[in-house]
Amino acid sequence: VYTQVAYPACPTGRDSERVVRALRGVGLGQLVDEGVHKVDDWASRLSRGEAQRIGIARILYHEPEVRALQV
Question: Structure pTM?
Fold first, then answer.
């Protein structure tokens, strides 16, 4: 999950605590419990809503000055 949240950042120099905060912030704490560095086929495992929340977690992780979401 780390690489999905940290994308497009390089996976070296991992900041797991930021990933954990971002995932918990969007209600995906169950993925944290499984381990943020677990390798899995996330495209088939996550529901569409969970996949959208990964995208929102990515925004939280990168902390941009401007955030725009289309609803």
Answer: 0.78
